[in-house]
Amino acid sequence: MVEPSKRCPPDEYLTVVQRRDDFDAFWDDLLEQAAQIPLNATMELVPLRCTPEVDVYLVHYDSLDSVRIAGWYCLPHERSGQLPVIVDMPGYISEPLIPYENAQKGYASFGTITRGKLRSNQQFNPGFPGLLTHNIVDRNSYSYRGLYIDASRVIDFLLSRDEIDHSRIGVTGGSQGGGLTISTAALRPEVCAAAASAPFLCGFMDSIALIDTYPYLEIRDYLRMYSERRAAVEETLAYFDGINFAPRVTCPIIVNLGLQDNVCPAETAFVTFEALASQDKHIYPYDGHGHEAGRVHHREIIDEFFKTHLE
Predict the structure, then answer these.
(1) I want to staple 74 with a disulfide (CB 3.0 to 4.6 A). Which of 17, 107, 109, 225 is the partner?
(2) Tens of pLDDT along 149-172?
(3) In terms of CATH architecture, what is 4-310?
(4) Interval 65-88 mean pLDDT
């Protein structure tokens, strides 16, 4: 690990991540494969979780490898016409919460429950730790191959709903959710606004050199046991790194980070931000903040951002 005193200013960091020539072809092929899978979506009202203001549904749909994926879908109880929607992407370890807050503000909202999470783990459950290194030497079976498509398939569900305005789809999340926000905005041009906080899954190999905390430490642990596999690990991760997804992101996007983040190093957020192809992009670094990335100050900025682009 690089000693903190020897780290350069985070906005001057040069990544070791390299984008493979067939990166886009790899993901375009996967998207084509996913498009051939019937969604088989179901939607069940959950009265126990409803409130006077919000109707809550448990959604299921099919994803890659015949894995059944769940999600929480919230709609304002009092609504008329088509609604803008905000998709919440999940963190790495924590279980996704029901996204009441945005529905209370008048949006439809979807809480994504990717494979390995409770309600989406009957067919795939490598655990935590475990998810980050599951089949890490093979890009065609690496855990995040399916997980990124699980997140992308939320857009397919929303496009199937008559109550959703398909031209007003936003995506947001923090940590792993921030990384999934970037990958989903990259893979799905239907996303018209994205807000990523402290993005995980960006600069994998950078991060294991910069910090010594989990979840990235899972990769260093793996390489300690299987040092001969390092080249294969680097090759696989190049296809799943948010830095390499960033050039495909063209929608308006904001990124916030904590300059003292010891889980997702600030350097990787800056590199990812610089690689974004969006013409309308803004970064918010918060000094004195760690992995919560200045949430207490940034919540209003996210609200105004989505109000501008979705309402």
Answers:
(1) 109
(2) 999 999 999 999 999 999 999 999
(3) 3-Layer(aba) Sandwich (3.40)
(4) 97
261 is an active site residue: yes
Could you say which of 60, 134, 291, 298 is catalytic?
291
Residues 6+ apart with CB under 8 A from 236: 136, 137, 138, 139, 142
Instruction: Indicate the helix (H) or strand (E) that contains 230.
Output: helix 230-237
Indicate the pLDDT class of residue 34, thresholds 50, 70 and 90: very high
Average pLDDT value over all residues in the chain? 97
Q: Are the beta carbons of 149 and 63 closer than 8 angstroms?
A: yes
Nearest to 206 by CA among 14, 4, 19: 14
- Secondary structure string (H, E, C) spanning 177-204: HHHHHHHHHHHCCCEEEEEEECCCCCCH
Question: pTM of whole model > 0.85?
Answer: yes
Q: Is the pLDDT at 6 greater than 80, yes or no?
A: no
- Model confidence at 5, pLDDT cuts 50, 70, 90, reads low
Q: What's the pLDDT score for residue 93?
A: 87
Active site residue 94: no
Residue 291: active-site member = yes
Q: Catalytic: which of 261, 289, 298, 309?
A: 261
Active-site annotation holder among 175, 183, 197, 207: 175
Tokens of 307: 């109000």
Sorted by where each begins, the domain ranges of the chain are: 4-310
Rounded CA-CA distance 147/193 in Å is 21
Percent of the chain predicted with pLDDT > 70: 99
Q: Are 83 and 76 in contact (CB under 8 A)?
A: yes
Collect all residues with Cβ–Cβ distance below 8 Å to 184 and sequence separation of at least 6: 87, 89, 148, 151, 152, 154, 155, 171, 191, 194
Torsion of CA 111, 116, 121, 123, to 10 degrees: 130
β-bridge pairing 68-76 and 164-174: unpaired
